[in-house]
Records
---
Amino acid sequence: MTGSYFTKIFGSSPFAPMQQHMSIATECVQELEALFSAVIEGNTSEFKSLYKRISKLEQKADRLKKELRMNMPKGLFMPVSRRDLLELLAVQDSLANTTKDIAGLILGRKLKLPEQLAEKYVVYVKRCIETAEQAKKVIDELDELVETGFRGREVIFVEKIITKLDKLEKETDKLEIKIRSMLFKIEADLPPVDVMFLYKIIDKTGDIGDLAQKVGSRVELLLAR
């Protein structure tokens, strides 16, 4: 009964909804580029519009996550356990949640990005988005991995995608360190509470890269098993 219900909602492949969920989460992350552009430009109406869009995407991802959790059969005959899939799903979902957290912090505090950080921060955000997009490429290969029994050329192909993902995440780490250093140099000229929240936003932006890498790491564990 559960299995047929799952198939009715999500199709014949249990990986299709996982890929759909990752697509929504990535779309949510991609909105960060326009969001920070609106912050830098001081475009409040555009920022609020983007915040609403991010919120809707996060809610959409959350609804799909709940449907997956409730309806995924416990006895899937696959080389991947239900628990592994649900853990991977949780990491994917955190991408959307973190994006909404970033937008919410900026909105709640009415924060402005210091002019000295603006140019470098745009590069930082774009690189974090690239990590999420690279992680999506990993998830897009789940069907092929299952069809090939997690062996052969497909595994080598996915490992190359994950290697690039790891490289992108390391680049986001370097950019984060640079931006934190830049903020440290000017923090005495800014309101202390704003400084505290700016550091928090920098950290959460970096979390996007970390979470994207975790998606790749989770799939690597599937390959190892």
Note: The CA atoms of residues 18 and 39 lie 32 Å apart.
---
Amino acid sequence: MIPTTLGILLVTFVLFHVVGGSPAQVVLGKNASAASLAAFDAKFGYDKPLFCGCWIGLRALPDDGAGGGKRWTAGMVPLAYPLPAGTYRLQNAGHADPAAGANQAVALQASIQALEGGGPARVVVAEAHGPFRALSFAVPEGWHATELRLIGAVPDRLRLRRRTDGFFDSQLCHFLGGLARGDLGMSADYGQTVWQVLRRGVGPSLAVTVPILVGGTVLALGLGLLCAMWRAGGLDRTILLVSTLLMSVNYVVWVLLGQYVLAFRLRLFPIWGFADWTYVLLPVLIGVVGGLGRDIRFFRAVMLDEIYKPYVRTAWAKGLTGTQVMLRHVLRNSLSPIVTYVSLSIPFLFTGSLLLESFYGIPGLGCVSLNAMHSSDMAVVRAVVIIGALLYQVVNLLTDLCYAWLDPRVRLT
């Protein structure tokens, strides 16, 4: 479970931090200013290396679209936004001016002003002798750099980097450290912590998904027992026919049909909202009906696998009634596959039902996830994916432990 969980977290990090591109550009758009993108990165922790490193590139220099930095023909190096306190390095991303001497001195002047803006500017000079490769300078606390000037050999391309607090001061380390502390980050759309956003949706989601799971499982299990007890009879064939019809209708059709006929036409249920408990009756009914046919057929097949075994014939020979045989023997020995089947649905109790919550206006986690995807709120979407994956891991572990409790032939070694 431990290596699988670490693999899930690593894949999730790569999907949301690497494959998806810059989160700042996804949220703010490609036309956002460099200052806005930098502020977004600093606020949500994206201004660090992805995996590890001591330096991280900045957006403070204009770019010509070629990926190597802006071409320069003069000594002035404009900044898109003031540089806060920290250690910086201006690097040559291209080639020095061939007309310059090989041993010509290069000087970098950084104009540093107080944050209040009232104090005089200080000039910091960083010098390098020989062909220009990199020049470093520091901005002290309470100050910011407003202007850079390069004196000497002029490179054709430049990159500006900032020094991190350490080699492991990266997005991955902060991501794993935050998860260890229970910190899922900040929501860019709501301006709150992800836990606060998810906490509001847990109650409505559980109000819908728990009755669907419990009611659907109990009803399907009872009908599966009846089919197995009177197999090949009229009741069995009728239930199988109804189950097949239920499975043949798409889940979205049940949602739309229930909302239009039962809520809009017949006025038996509220159409939209989550004001009180009556608003979840129709979604629960649709959820139970939508999965009932599949559950009945599975439970029936499990019962029939057990009912022809020798121990069942022995129970009949002892004179036990049909109810006693089905409940005390058949059902008990069928619990292992039933627990496995039901456990697959447990993680969805917390992540919510996307279709039901969207169509019936229930502010659960499914609706929160859909809104987060529409607004590119990556922190919330990432948290829902992680919670769902971790719940699967925990439920699988508990299911394995239940096997030893249900079946005396299974031992934990």
Note: The longest helix spans residues 194-229.
---
Amino acid sequence: MRVKVAEAGSYHYPDIVVVCATPQFEDAHVDTLLNPTLLIEVLSPSTEAYDRGGKFAHYRKIATLREYLLVAQDQPSIERYLRQGDAWILSEALGLEATVPLESIDCVLSLREVYDKVPDDAWKVEPV
């Protein structure tokens, strides 16, 4: 679903959007969300720099956003940014045995489950 960052005047299509409150939409078309709680991007070589930089800079302006995840494709790795006041705190989960606590939605994400369908020989680098 498309997400509008009103403060930046931009629109984005995250890979996964979670909203916990009553969804607020830009208009009656109900295709542009204004109040995401959690956004997840799967990194690719062509979008990684933008997902980490400009796009995240825009996302940080969304008052309702509590967590932002970046999921690697070339190894079992997830970076989690958690809003704490005006700061964003980074934590990393590395390896198939790791988990990511998603405080914003009261959930724990297992990297083994995230990467369940990825064959062991798919990693570009040795899995951590």
Note: The chain has a mean pLDDT of 94.
---
Amino acid sequence: MNALLALLIAAVVAVGLPLDASGLPGARIMVTLATAGVFVLLWQRTAPAHRPALLVCLILAGLGEALLSLGFGLYDYRGGGIPLFVPPGHVLLFALGTWLVDRAPADIAASVAWVALPASAVLAAGGADQLSMILLLLYLAAVRFGPAPKLYGVMFLLALLLELWGTWIGTWAWRHQVAGTPLHTLNPPLAAGAFYCVLDWLVQVLAPRLAILVPGARASGRVTPSPDAPCH
């Protein structure tokens, strides 16, 4: 993926989310079409051997949204339901993360943990955000056992920026209390990025196994995006 496509993805997030939050007639349709268009462009610019990762990310993102938002009720989108632009939006963020990872410090995964752990401990002790301590365990598991620790460090920060932007403008909002538990959290949780890290971990694991679904993918021994980028 080149810098121009990376900037286009960033622009979709920067402009598309506030447009959706505006509630203007047709705004959500416009954002959905723009996101789908960039997704198609990303797919076309991605080598066939790496396309299974994009497909798996799209499927898992949709399932994850249904589980976390509709199932567990952790957060709600403006107007209810799950906007159609959200699952492909996760794919775009995943692609952006794989592009940024070679430009990030080598110790970014550890640095994130050293900062997030004490910050989450303070928030949990004060009762403001107890969920993040649990989410950090997911992040640490991904870093320890997943195939791309540096990518997870990048995605943790990238997703946190996305969460701060999306909640600030009102595209979605996290509920103060985790349903069915005594746990409280912020809007967004400090460690919300852990969900994205687990998503990308699963993509790395499942993409090689589902390569048969994408024509041309089996021509290469590697179907998971490299730490640099999934595109040529």
Note: The two ends are 6 Å apart (CA to CA).
